[in-house]
Write a structure and sequence with these properties.
Largest sheet: 4 strands, mixed
CATH superfamily: Bit1
Strand order of the largest sheet: 2-1-4-3
Number of helices: 3
Order of helices and strands: EHEHEEH
CATH topology: Bit1
Structural class: alpha+beta
Distance between the termini: 27 Å
Helix content: 25-40%
Shape: globular
Length: 106
């Protein structure tokens, strides 16, 4: 899953959940337990570039566009990805904003 890091930490969390929810609806329930990995991209342009990379590799995904943000693309979630195909995400940093969310709501 990818989320834009130019959003606030709280927005990143919510947008990632939106994308995961839509992907769950779209791809259904896999026959096996899959992992969830949340990575970041710097902005909408990078998210759209990532979606094109996934499309070129035949990886299905759901791109979430936030109605309250003029339908900007904010996050995406893929179908479950097996072993070697996961390396497509190796260039994206892991999401690390949990502490910021905790401070925002303290």
């Amino acid at each position: 899953m990818l989320v834009r890091s130019d959003l606030t930490a709280a927005q990143q969390f919510v947008q990632a959940c939106h994308a995961a929810h839509e992907a769950g609806i779209f791809f259904g329930n896999p026959d096996h337990i899959s992992s969830l990995v949340l990575c970041t991209v710097p902005d909408e342009a990078a998210l759209r570039d990532a979606s094109r990379r996934l499309q070129l590799r035949g990886i299905r995904f759901s791109l979430f566009q936030e109605p309250d943000m003029e339908n900007q693309a904010t996050a995406l979630a893929t179908e479950p990805i097996p072993g070697p195909l996961r390396k497509v995400f190796s260039k994206y940093p892991l999401w690390k904003e949990l502490k910021e969310i905790q401070h925002e709501h303290a």
